[in-house]
Every structure is written in C-alpha cells, then in structure tokens.
Design goal:
seven-stranded mixed β-sheet; 10 helices; binds iron/sulfur cluster
C-alpha cells in the first residue's frame, strides 16, 4: 500500500465534510444514514487507491473540496491538493456492495453519542421485511450485492426487537437463499442469539461500545457492560470464532492500554473488535461534554498507532477482518480496518 494512505484516511475520518463543486450532480444515489457515525447526514463513498471512506457532503465551504479534474476527481483540503485518483462509489443501501438496513431508528435507550433516536425524520418507518427483500432484489439487478445486514434501535423491548430482526432474517434467507446475512442486535440472553442464528444469520456484531466500564456506565447508562461480555461469549459458542465482531468506540477518555487489552481479550475469545473513532457533532457534543468534559477527536497519530496495534493483536490470534462478509468489516468506510487499510 502506498505510504501515507492510512494517514490520509485517518485525516478524512476525523475531518469535516466535503464541499461539492457548484451544480455537481452526484453520479449515484446519496446515502442518508439512520445509524452509524453519519446518521442523519447526506453522504457519499469516496474510493482512493483501494481504500474507501464515507463522507458527509455539503454545498457550502468545508474542510475538503471535491475537484473535477481532467482525469477524474481530486480532493483538496483547505484549498490545497490532498488526494488524487479519487472515485465516487455506489452504495447498495447505506454501504458499498452491501444492503445494510436499520429496522428501527427509534430506541428506548439513551447512549450519549448516538444520533439515531434523535433524528427528526423517521426514515425507517414502513421498512418491512417484504420491502427489504424487494429493495435488495431490485438493487441486485444493477449492482453486486455481496451481503445483507440488519441493525435496529431497541424499541418496545429487547425481546420484541430481536424477534423482529429474526423474522426479517428468516424472510431474507427464504427469498434470497444464498445471501450472506449479518445482524447487529442488542441481546440480553443466549436464546436471542440462538434465535438469530437459527433464522439464518451468518455473522453477528454485539457492540461493547467502550473498553472502560466506568466510561461505559456514563455514556450507555441503560446498557450492561458485564452482560455484553457474556453475550459475546455465547455468540462465539453459537456462531463460531471469527463470525463475531464487536465495535469499540474510542476517544471518550479511555487509555490506549485499556483499549488494547480489551481488543486482546476479545481476540482471545474469537471476537474481532472494530475500533471506531468517536464522531462528535452538534447533536451529541453537548451531552458528551456535559458528562465527560471538553472533548477533542483523537489525533491522526493515535488513530494510526492504535490501528497498527489492533492489526498485530488480530494477527496473533488468527483473526482477519477480510474474512468477515458483512457489516463494518466488509464496508470499511468509517474506520481504519487492519489488513484493509494498513
Ligand atoms: S442501544 Fe444505544 S447505540 Fe444502540 S441505537 Fe440505542 S441509543 Fe443508539
Ligand atoms: S463502516 Fe459500518 S457504520 Fe460505517 S458506513 Fe459502513 S456499515 Fe455503516
């Protein structure tokens, strides 16, 4: 990989939006995510030298500028050339080559960094299992759809949310039998993991959110850190090692040591952690700063150093994000992913 590309991706991940040239027509459908770091924003996927990143796009002045050059697209940063040979990539739904659906953006929990329940439009309203299959089949006519994933806010109860997710997975498995399916639930008992597996899910992501139990208690006041660890163990039993992933958000005051020890503990269980830099925005910043104090995004140096350590740990335990077919490891748009980006 060309030297410096990992750093450039880190700069893009922690940086601001991309300003489009006046009158620019985006060649693909614009994604308006209801989950993940870009929730609520209009964004597109930029690809460069084999890497990809999803960025919010705006018309007004911003940190990055898209330039239409004679030989394709170029990205400038603060008015100076930053990246050449940039392409704009299609998303299936939310993610490139993947149909990723949020079954319900509403959530009865209150994680301080999470924008999904605060979006003013209910973008997931009317998203039935039948519609998901229909939309995916239509997309498959015009582009590769390598996998399908489902996430959901917790609405009603955990059990009801998992049952809705399992019902959706069962329907997709029945209607598109060869589809690789990933699920990202909040679960409280082993039976819920078994239900999703029996319904036909191939991979599962159960998010630990923070490596630090004290920070977790503050930012995810309704969730149970110890329970998530137990659910991850059960998930490996049910889905198998290398089929379970877990997002860890960093940039909330945790130490590198606690982060890397957690990555290692997960890896020793057969779980590949995904390291997600905290995305601060006008919606979540007031909540986070009133709970944790003034916050700044992690430096590029910290991001790349952690990514290198992350890669080393996964390698030591025989885990490789490239073997995962669904969700964030297959997408790679929001993180520095070992073996894909470095
Ligand atoms: S459980 Fe927390 S992170 Fe997940 S959707 Fe609900 S509020 Fe957001
Ligand atoms: S990396 Fe994950 S959260 Fe980000 S766009 Fe891809 S699937 Fe969504």
């Amino acid at each position: 990989m060309e030297e410096g590309l990992t750093e450039k991706k880190a700069i893009l991940l922690r940086g601001g939006a991309v300003q489009l040239p006046p009158g620019f027509q985006v060649p693909f459908r614009i994604s308006r995510s209801t989950a993940g770091p870009g929730a609520g924003k209009r964004s597109i996927v930029f690809m460069f030298h084999g890497l990809r990143v999803k960025k919010a796009i705006v018309q007004e002045e911003a940190e990055f500028q898209l330039i239409v050059g004679d030989d394709g697209y170029i990205l400038h940063r603060h008015g100076l050339p930053f990246l050449d040979e940039v392409e704009i990539g299609p998303v299936v739904f939310h993610s490139p080559e993947q149909a990723f659906f949020n079954l319900d953006q509403r959530c009865m929990y209150h994680c301080l960094y999470c924008n999904s329940p605060l979006l003013d439009v209910n973008a997931t309203k009317g998203l039935t299992k039948e519609k998901i299959v229909q939309m995916t089949k239509e997309a498959m006519l015009s582009m590769p759809v390598l996998s399908l994933s489902v996430t959901s806010g917790v609405y009603g109860s955990v059990q009801e949310t998992v049952e809705r997710m399992a019902d959706c997975v069962r329907h997709v498995r029945q209607e598109i039998p060869d589809m690789i399916i990933g699920v990202e639930p909040y679960v409280q008992v082993r039976e819920q993991i078994e239900l999703l597996h029996q319904a036909g899910a191939d991979e599962i992501k159960i998010n630990l959110e923070s490596p630090d139990p004290e920070i977790f208690r503050i930012v995810c006041p309704d969730l149970d850190h110890g329970l998530i660890w137990r659910m991850l163990e059960d998930a490996v039993d049910v889905f198998g090692p290398g089929k379970v992933a877990s997002n860890i958000i960093y940039g909330m005051g945790e130490t590198d040591q606690s982060l890397l020890q957690t990555v290692e503990r997960l890896a020793s269980m057969g779980v590949a952690a995904g390291l997600r830099m905290l995305t601060l925005n006008e919606t979540n910043r007031p909540y986070l700063e009133s709970a944790l104090g003034k916050m700044e995004p992690p430096s590029v140096e910290r991001m790349t150093r952690l990514a290198r350590e992350h890669k080393r740990i996964l390698q030591d335990y025989g885990l490789d994000p490239r073997s995962y077919r669904t969700m964030c490891f297959a997408c790679t748009c929001c993180d520095l992913v070992p073996f894909r980006d470095l």
